[in-house]
Fold this sequence. Notes:
Layout: H1 13-43, E1 56-62, H2 67-80, E2 84-90, H3 93-101, E3 113-116, H4 122-127, E4 133-146, E5 156-157, H5 159-166, H6 176-180, E6 193-197, H7 202-214, H8 216-221, E7 234-237, H9 239-248, E8 253-258, H10 259-265, E9 268-269, E10 271-273, E11 279-280, H11 284-291, E12 316-323, E13 326-327, H12 329-343, H13 350-353, H14 360-370, E14 374-375
Parallel strand pairs: 1-2, 1-3, 5-10, 6-7, 6-8, 13-14
Antiparallel strand pairs: 3-12, 4-8, 4-9, 4-12, 10-11
Helix pairs in contact: 1-9, 12-14
Amino acid sequence: xxxxxxxxxxxxxKEKYFVALSQVIRVVVLVIFVTILxxxxxxxxxxxxxxPTDAILLTGAGSTFASVIxxxxxxAYHESNPKxxxxxxxxxxxxxxxxxIGNNVAAEERVDFGASDSAMSDAEIxxxxxxxxxxxxxxxxxxxxxxxxxxxxxLKLSRRAYSGIFLGEIKQWNDRLIAQAxxxxxxxxxxxxxxxxxxxxxxxxxxxxxxxAISDRWRxxxxxxxxxxWPGNTMRAKGNEGVAGLIGNSEGAVGYVGYEFAxxxxxxxxxxxxKAGKFVKATDESCRAALTxxxxxENLRAFVPDPKGADSYPIATFSWILLxxxxxxxxxxxxxxxxxxxxQDGQLYxxxxxxxxxxxxxxxxxxxxxxxIETSS
Length: 377
């Protein structure tokens, strides 16, 4: 029993039992704390936003992946447009889609726009009475952040290794498949704990789209999804921030998270093997390279689950704003002006925050989609 041998100190069986038990308790308490804390904060009544009589309030909900850049955008936009106030709830892509569709949703949860890193499925669009326009608004990479105290060097994970880890088949950090890509590096004899999302998530969708593309075993067992019954030794948290926080506080952990959150907390991230067989870390250049070949269909829903190119980072995604086809005139005008600004001036904020500026061709199509929003009589 590995838990009973600590720091090379021999202990009596009874002492070993209580030391091991105390370790388990600490891990359980940590998981409960990180998992429950976001929920507790949302259980409190939301502060009412005071809107001057000559201003307009726009409400949105969804993606935690895009929330960092949204917060910066909406604050900056309000500074130059004080009569436009945006209130955004980072509740996850799945919940954002639910609130946007609005069926069986409490009045206070209804929103003017949703945000999702998985766009909307055909079934979700149908539930919205086909009254939905998907507009790509930003983009970014999803990294595998890890916590290996004392580990020196740059961790490399092959396609077989990281898919095997999240399939629950690779259980130790010094497993042969991990060691093959890290010659000459001492890997710890430490149990792997994967940190995953417990809420419906576009980040999960983008990551599992990649797993679906690179692993037959994943494709046959799970496929892509916003909510997954993860196998193996998993710890679960809400939102990108919850996942990042749990990784940072859990030795032996590895989890998928938006690059901007890993960078914000100073987490180490792995270099991943791409389609060309090269090990690539997430950077502005490698993430941008992954999206250059994306071809936007008419509905602007495009995924790049396994991008080509030796310089491409393998897990990148667009993030979409969800809008209705018709709004009251004042709301329609305010939404168009806000997101036109995000597609133009707002893109300049992306690199400093860990996001990718949209390719010019994508931004142009997104702006054209905004112009299709009509006013209801």
